[in-house]
Amino acid sequence: MQFKNSTERYGAVAQLLHWSIVVLIITQFVLASKAEPLSIGPAKIAVLAQHKSVGMTIFALAVLRLLWRLINPVPTLPAQTPRWQNLAAHFSHWALYALILVTPLLGWTMSSARNFPVSWFGLFTLPDLIQPDRAKYDLLHATHETCALTLGILAVLHAVAALKHHFFDRDNVLRRMLPVRLKTDRS
User: Quick check: 106 and 143 in contact, CB under 8 A?
Assistant: First the structure.
């Protein structure tokens, strides 16, 4: 497997970062749904601590992914891809990046506004971003949830589009991000 991207495929680094973020985002939704019904207490605090740690990990990996993308151009879309799909792909990728970066920052700021510490798996505690303020907490909490939901919807649409390319268009859009090579009629 190639380390860097080529014009045809994403390299091992981009694939590792992409799939790691995917797994961690799914983990976030599981942790959030696990915490939701719990009443405040040690169990809920433990789940939310995991949620915060995973969120900060996603943020760090997303920064690395963006830096890698800036120095390592992405493969081109198939020539037969309609212009509207090219525009939609570019918009959705940048929207995903924005949400993957903004959502954890909102969570961190929200925790700061409630004076709840954000630590990374108990190894170190991140500094508060703002002073405690219940009104700001409420606004940040609502915004964090909206961004997370929007991220989830956009991620599902992203996956559906990749599957559409693979099963209906029979091009290499999905295969270029997979570590294994799948065959199609045109490969």
Answer: yes
